[in-house]
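hiii, so i know i said id send this last week but things got crazy w the move. better late than never?? heres the sequnce for the chain we talked about at the cafe, plus the structure i predicted for it. fair warning i was half asleep when i ran it
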Amino acid sequence: MTDPTDSLALLSPFNIGDLTLKNRVIMAPLTRSRAGVERMPNEIMAEYYAQRAGAGLIISEATVISKQGIGWLNTPGIYSDEQTKAWQQVVEAVHANGTHIFLQLWHCVRASHTSFQENGQLPVSASTVILNEEYIHSY
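okay and structure toks below
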């Protein structure tokens, strides 16, 4: 058995199912809000993730799965063909360093605000319970 205080274990390869990570370091998702109003992954994002590709696995920032799921400024999306293609530059930059990347899928549901919705519609949610306004962000 490996000594849990041995820091070399942290840097050793690790399997999660069929996926082999180059080490046991996993970067948790951190929302950066750099995708702009079109929610398009871009070169700045590719560089940001490539700089952190020493980790064995990166979990991307929250990525909106539909226009109705928007609830935060300038977060990336993956609900259009253009956005999906734009993510490729990020994935390639991370993979070039031998690191895996998972996409954190996001739909803000009732935590969204009408200012993010087309025509000021109410956000789509399974719950009719309104959140405390301290937790709601708007444009």
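btw The helical segments are 43-51, 81-95. thought thatd interest u
miss u guys!!
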